[in-house]
Amino acid sequence: MRSKFLGTGVALVTPFTSDNLVDIEALERLVNYVVDRGVEYLVVLGTTAETATLNKQEKELVIATVKSVNDGRVPLVLGMGSNNTYDLVDQLKETDMSGFDAILSVSPYYNKPTQEGIYQHFKMVAENSPLPVILYNVPGRTGSNMLPATVLRLANEFDNIIGIKEASGDLTQAMRIINEKPEDFLVISGDDMLALPMVLAGGAGVISVIGQGFPKEFSEMIRYGLLHKTKEAFDLQYKIMNSIDYIFEEGNPAGIKALLEILGVCSGGVRLPLVKASGNLYEKLLVFSEKFNAITV
C-alpha cells in the first residue's frame, strides 16, 4: 500500500473562473494533464488548492470532480488538517473518504504547540482516521517545526502513520528522519528544489507544486532519482530549477497558476487575500516555458 506513494504526487490547484467560482472544466483538464503525463498520485485540498478560501460546498465539488475525472487511474490523497484537534477528529469521523487512499494532515498552525502538543494532536488523528496518515511539516506556514524526534516517535508508535511530507527546507533534518525511521516509513519532500537530493538520500519522492506545470519531466526526474540514475536526474533538475524559483517568487499558488495559464490549463486567478501574479512574473514564466519546451521536445 505504501508503494502507492513512491514517486511524484502533485498538490493540485483549484482553478477559478473570471467570476471567482470553482472552474470545473479547468479542474478536469488539470487532472487529465498531470495524470496523462505520468505523475504517480494526486493530493486534493492541500495548501496549494487555496483550501482555506473554499467553503464546504466548494470542497465537496472539488473532491467529486477529481474523483470522477481521475476514475481510479492514480491514488488520491485528501488534505485534512486543522489547528483545532477536536474539530479535526469530528471531520475525520464525518467526511466521506471513499475513493481516497490516505490523508495528508498538516501540523497545527498558528497555535505554535510544543513538540508534546504536536505529538498528542497526531495521536488523536491516528486513532480516529479511517485512512493511513501522511504527516505534513511546513514550518514556514505553521509557525512551528515538527522535529525529527517527534516524527520518529509517531512513526514508531502508530502503524497507520505511514509517512511525512517534510517541507522545512532543511535537508539535514530530512536526513535525520531518513536515517532513523522505520524501514517502510515514507519521507516525502515538500520542497521542489530539494526533492531530488532528498530522494537520493533515501526519500520516497515528492508532493510537488511545479510537478503540475511540468509533470512529465519532473516525475521522470524523481523516477531517475529513485533508480539512482544521478546524471539523468540532475540533467532534468538543472533544466527545471529556474522555474521552481519563479513559481514561488510571489507566493504559492499565484506562481504555479500563472504558469498553468501560460500552458493553457487554467486561469491564473486566485482568491483574496492572495493576488494574481504580476506581469513581470508572467513574462519570466513565458520565456522559461518557451525555452523549456524547445529543450524537451
UniProtKB/TrEMBL annotation:
Gene3D superfamilies: Aldolase class I. It catalyses: L-aspartate 4-semialdehyde + pyruvate = (2S,4S)-4-hydroxy-2,3,4,5-tetrahydrodipicolinate + H2O + H(+). Keywords: Amino-acid biosynthesis, Cytoplasm, Diaminopimelate biosynthesis, Lyase, Lysine biosynthesis, Schiff base. Its EC number is 4.3.3.7. HAMAP family: DapA. The record marks T47, Y110 as: Part of a proton relay during catalysis. Pathway: Amino-acid biosynthesis; L-lysine biosynthesis via DAP pathway; (S)-tetrahydrodipicolinate from L-aspartate: step 3/4. It is found in: Cytoplasm. Homotetramer; dimer of dimers. The keyword Acyltransferase does not apply. The active site is at Y136 (proton donor/acceptor), K165 (schiff-base intermediate with substrate). Catalyzes the condensation of (S)-aspartate-beta-semialdehyde [(S)-ASA] and pyruvate to 4-hydroxy-tetrahydrodipicolinate (HTPA). InterPro entries: Aldolase_TIM, DapA, DapA-like, Schiff_base-form_aldolases_AS. Belongs to the DapA family. The keyword ATP-binding does not apply. Transmembrane segments: none annotated. It holds the Pfam family DHDPS. Pyruvate binds at T48, I207. This is 4-hydroxy-tetrahydrodipicolinate synthase. It is an enzyme of class 4 (lyase).
